[in-house]
Amino acid sequence: MTGWVLVDINSTLLLEVALDLANSLNNSDRFERLLSTIRKAIKCDAVALMGLNGEVLTPLAVQGLARRTLGRRFLASEHPRLAQICNSESPVRFPSDCNLPDPFDGLLLDREGDLPVHSCLGLPLYSDNHLVGLLTLDSMASDAYSLISDRTLELIAALSAATLKTALELKALSLSAEHAEQLVKELTQEAFQRDGGELIGESKVMKTLRSDIELVAGSDYNVLILGETGVGKELVARTVHRLSPRKEKPLVYLNCASLTETLAEAELFGHAKGAFTGAERERPGKFLLANGGTLFLDEVGELPLSVQGKLLRVLQSGEIQPVGKDAVQLVDVRIVAATNRDLLKEIAKGAFRADLYHRLSVYPLEVPSLSQRGNDVLLLADYFLERSTRKLGFRQLRLTADASSKLKRYGWPGNVRELEHIISRAALKARKNSSPSEIVSLTAAHIEIPEDMVAQADFEKPLAPTLEVINLRAATEDYQRDLIKHILIQCEGNWSRAANLLSTDRGNLVRLSKRLGIYVKKEIVGVK
User: Fold this and answer.
1) Are the beta carbons of 525 and 485 closer than 8 angstroms?
2) Phi, psi (rounded to 5 degrees) for 363
3) In this predicted model, what pLDDT tens digit does every residue of 245-277 receive, in sequence order?
4) What is the sign, positive or negative, of the torsion defined by CA atoms of 472, 473, 476, 482?
5) Are 115 and 105 in contact (CB under 8 A)?
6) Measured distance CA(243)–CA(219) in Å, rounded
7) Burial letters for 404-427: b for 16+ Cβ neighbours within 10 Å, e otherwise?
8) Which end of the chain has fewer CB atoms within 10 angstroms, the N or the C?
9) What are the DSSP E strand ranges found in 101-143?
10) Are 289 and 252 in contact (CB under 8 A)?
11) Which residues sit opposite 519 in a β-bridge?
């Protein structure tokens, strides 16, 4: 085939390229049309547009070369011709008898094996004085490009660089939009959008927990949250993030339970398109979404061992490698993990890595079970009653004394989550026979707790053969103090309403409360 050249590019070709830059084309179409326009100006047997990322040149579009060329990745340091083009600031014309190996040997569409003597032209593509890629042209004719003016080649290089820059910027915008969309999805997960951002409770164990959270939140330490199912580990994680310097950055959630090895790795680190079956597009992982913020790994004890090792490397180096990609990315992420498993036992069984455990548990937080929290159960019950009041349209919902007693005597194997569900069901049952305008009292009958799981009150239990000496007056006053305090909290410090619920005179209630050390100040009920 005889090569020929067009020394000057006419205005029609310039207009074609300009329109392609302005039109809403995808990058693949934009690159193909650029190469077609160049081939109208300069006759050649093969042309390739390559983008530069670090040391790697990636074919973005080719004509006259085998389609599989797009799957190749070229290190400039391993290909002398490409290296020479990269190191030049002007077009490079290789002599026909150049003995440097051609990177496209064996890839020409109509030829097999090494390329014979041929002409090769390379154009470095610069944008803002930064090399963004290369354009190479090959012709089987000798000295095919010797007559082309430098001005023409510079113009072609400028048009190609502009096309490449536009494509890269559009891709960056697309990835940014996709990242933002994905981030919104992650941050609107149900577990992070439920009502309540406050750890409710006045028990000693809850005060200790709040103190520990405030202490560790201001640091950048990884946190391991331990506790039974349903105690509120997610709420603790949110609180740690909210009180941390990262509070303006993302809080991203991942439930590690039931993730296969491949899926867990892809969810954590992201994946390239086609990295595995079902990977139809490139997707960022949770680490990238949480960059600058906090990643909450729920049920971290469920992670496969192989993924545990990769997670450990990220914690050590701050680098992630998406599945199906060679390149690594640096991330700045704080890990808050949670588990209901005894990880020390899991380590002994070989199911969890000891080194990962120590990396995660820089500052462990133990969330107490509801059975350890005493009267907090009634405070939480009132909190869930208020939510049910709003959701179901009641004027007011309250607990009777027998309902409160039943709640306190239950063991709560399902913890706070179980209490929430029981209160919600009780409110729904009460709605059946009540008017929204009424103040509705939930009785023990509304509380769906199996009777055989409710501890008997002390006076209902049979006498034991050996009795412990008990101060009856002190025990009675303790019971009165707890009951009156609970009713006053429920009535927001209103003595008249509290007296009505307790079926006693207001004055008598005030005097008894004073003797028991109970006070009300600005709707705060306390004990002196």
Assistant:
1) yes
2) -140, 95
3) 998 888 999 998 877 877 888 888 887 776 666
4) negative
5) yes
6) 10
7) bbbbbebebebbbebbbebbbebb
8) C
9) 119-127, 130-139
10) yes
11) 526
Rounded Cα gap, residues 242 and 296, in angstroms: 13
Q: Tell me what the mean pLDDT of segment 394-407 comes to.
A: 88
Q: Could you give the CA distance from residue 307 to residue 262 in angstroms, rounded to a whole number? A: 9
Question: pLDDT per residue over 368-396, tens digit each?
Answer: 999 999 989 999 998 898 888 888 888 88
Structure tokens at 31: 């690159």
Residue 339 has pLDDT above 90, yes or no: yes
Q: Could you report the per-residue pLDDT of 116-162, keeping only the tens digit for each?
A: 657 899 999 998 888 999 999 988 888 888 888 888 888 888 888 88
Q: DSSP state, 51?
A: E
Could you list the beta-strand ranges (E) of 244-375: 251-255, 294-298, 319-320, 329-330, 334-339, 363-366
Residue ranges of E strands in 250-359: 251-255, 294-298, 319-320, 329-330, 334-339
**Buried b / exposed e across 156-165, counting CB within 10 Å, b at 16+?**
bbebbbbbbb
Instruction: Provide the mean pLDDT of the chain.
Output: 81
The distance between the two most distant Cα atoms of the chain, rounded to a whole number of Å, is: 115
Strands 294-298 and 334-339: parallel
What would the mean pLDDT of 54-69 be, rounded to a whole number? 87
As a whole number of angstroms, the distance between CA 333 and CA 294 comes to: 6
347: number of Cβ within 10 Å = 16
Under 8 Å CB-to-CB from 420, ≥6 apart: which residues? 380, 384
pLDDT band at 511 (very low <50, low <70, confident <90, very high): confident
Q: Which of 347, 322, 315, 350 is nearest to 262 (CA)?
A: 322
Residue 404 near residue 430 (C-beta atoms within 8 A): no
pTM equals: 0.55
Alpha helices in 23-144 (DSSP H): 27-41, 80-86
**Which two three-digit tokens encode residue 345?**
């036992």
User: Which residues lie closer than 8 Å to 451 by C-beta, 6 or more apart?
Assistant: none
From the CA atom positions of the chain, what is the Rg in Å?
36
Q: Tell me, what DSSP letter sits at residue 76?
A: G
User: How far apart, in whole angstroms, are the C-alpha atoms of residue 148 and residue 123?
Assistant: 13
Decide: 186 and 286 in contact? Cβ < 8 Å.
yes
Q: What is the DSSP pairing of strand 319-320 with strand 223-226?
A: unpaired
Higher pLDDT residue, 525 or 32?
Answer: 32
Nearest CA-CA partner of 9 in 95, 20, 17: 17
Taking the C-alpha atoms of residue 419 and residue 417, their distance in angstroms, rounded to an integer, is 5
CA distance 171 to 165: 10
